[in-house]
Design goal:
two-stranded antiparallel ribbon; five-stranded mixed sheet; about 475 residues; alpha+beta; UPF0236
């Protein structure tokens, strides 16, 4: 310890600035950590050999190995043992659950995948190289991310099926919101542009902080690049696993796109107290704008009529707008067709256009959040020259969803055995033996004292004091 402290002090003395000192100390601490861990592994490895020798094993070789931890790259040696008629074994690797040809620790892979779900693989490489004492190439990060994403997707589909919670013990909530929407990505490696189909549910909105920032209560997100049906299936499994909604008012919302009709939501809900479906107001207004682009004045009145849920007024506006079309206009027929399609659209979705205040609901807000929650996915996978295959996009999206749902670590530890491999009893025994051998009493230096004498100098104690002094 004194030697380490002396080296730190020397480093500080030889540095001309705090920045220079910190850069130098970063290297010093990394080297010290590597040396200490390597030395500790060596002691434990030697203790593990005893049991194998008693079983007739002999030392075959002492191979070295390099493993990247989050605190740096560590090189260490351990013994390989062999026995006639048996496969050779490395006691240390077996005791800690270290598989062959693995170069990165489980925590390194987990953190690499997390960073890569927020930015490009090259940016993740730069961040890791800059902020940590280990390095990973962007191709390695890509491989790790895809492997982790596949694992999470598999866990998301199987974990709810293994849940054994009884119906009476499942969560009950007065209101549950469910939304679905698709996010089209830029063209990638395939001819067809990949699309992320998303379904999410939550229990409402609460406002936090001085700025009253809206936060969804117990939000859960599910996605699929296969189909909207697959996304609904995943959401359905978790909905059934977590909630008892027999006495719940379920409020669903969508833009009415292909695969997101009311019946798709009704299929995954099952039995509930009541199901109310909304057509997303933003997309309804966009549809009006698209169909009535030729008459801005009447377009504004149409939006107001839909907002007040007045069908008679809508018919009047349609008729008025049609009368305002000039017969001599070469696009007159086209404009009339647009009005016909708009009226059919509004009639078809009229029940879903009814506003909150007219439905006798215990809440007056909470829908329209699915599209705003596209951002973590769109920021990571759209534009900026990024291209994804459907499978690659699905793996990255699965990591984003798991992080948002708070299930990232649970998914990996459930599905990847090496993340939860327990240290074997022989390893713990070797650690205890190594600790006993390394224990020592700290030096307290030379003790200084004096002989007390409360009697005369001629007394026996006085003579002894005189002798020592």
């Amino acid at each position: 310890m004194n030697q380490i402290i002396s080296e730190i002090i020397t480093t500080l003395k030889d540095s001309s600035s705090l920045l220079e000192a910190e850069l130098a100390l970063e290297t010093v601490f990394q080297r010290i950590t590597q040396q200490l861990l390597s030395a500790a592994i060596k002691q434990i490895d030697l203790e593990l050999l005893h049991d194998y020798k008693e079983q007739g094993y002999e030392i075959d070789s002492v191979p070295d190995r390099t493993l990247q931890f989050t605190f740096g790259t560590v090189e260490f040696e351990r013994h390989r043992m062999r026995k006639e008629g048996e496969k050779s074994v490395i006691p240390f690797d077996k005791a800690v659950g270290l598989k062959p040809r693995i170069r990165n620790s489980p925590l390194v892979e987990m953190k690499a995948a997390q960073i890569a779900s927020d930015g490009t693989y090259r940016k993740a490489e730069e961040a890791i190289n800059l902020l940590t004492s280990f390095s990973l190439s962007h191709t390695t990060i890509h491989t790790i991310t895809q492997k982790v994403g596949e694992t999470i997707q598999e866990w998301t589909e199987t974990a709810p099926l293994q849940d054994e919670t009884s119906q009476k013990d499942k969560k009950k909530t007065p209101v549950l919101f469910i939304e679905g929407d698709g996010l089209m990505l830029t063209k990638g490696k395939e001819k067809k542009r990949p699309e992320i189909h998303r379904v999410q549910f939550h229990e409402g909105v609460e406002y936090k902080g001085k700025q009253k920032r809206p936060v969804l209560i117990n939000s859960k997100m599910f996605e699929s690049t296969v189909s909207s049906k697959e996304a609904f299936k995943r959401a359905s499994l978790w909905l059934e696993s977590l909630y008892d909604i027999r006495e719940t008012i379920v409020i669903s919302n969508s833009d009415g796109g292909s695969g997101y009709d009311k019946d798709k939501f009704h299929q995954i809900i099952g039995k509930c107290q009541r199901h109310e479906h909304f057509r997303d107001a933003y997309h309804v207004n966009e549809k009006i704008k698209q169909r009535m682009y030729f008459d801005k004045k009447m377009e504004k009145k149409m939006k107001e009529a839909v907002r007040t849920y007045d069908w008679d007024r809508i018919e009047t506006i349609i008729a008025t707008t049609e009368s305002r079309i000039e017969i001599n206009n070469e696009k007159a027929t086209e404009f009339q067709e647009e009005l016909t399609m708009l009226k059919a659209y509004l009639y078809r979705n009229w029940e879903s256009l009814k506003p909150f205040k007219m439905r006798d609901l215990p809440v007056n807000k909470g829908i329209g959040v699915c599209e705003s929650n596209h951002r973590p996915y769109s920021y990571r996978m759209k534009r900026q020259g990024r291209g994804f295959s459907a499978q690659g996009a699905g793996n990255v999206a699965a990591i984003i969803s798991a992080r948002k749902n708070g299930t990232f670590l649970k998914a990996l530890t459930d599905k990847i055995p090496e993340l939860t491999t327990k240290l074997q009893p022989e390893f713990k025994g070797a650690v205890r033996a190594a600790l006993k051998k390394s224990q020592h009493r700290p030096s307290i230096g030379v003790k200084i004292g004096r002989i007390a004498n409360n009697g005369s100098p001629s007394s026996p104690m006085g003579q002894l004091q005189k002798l020592f002094n």
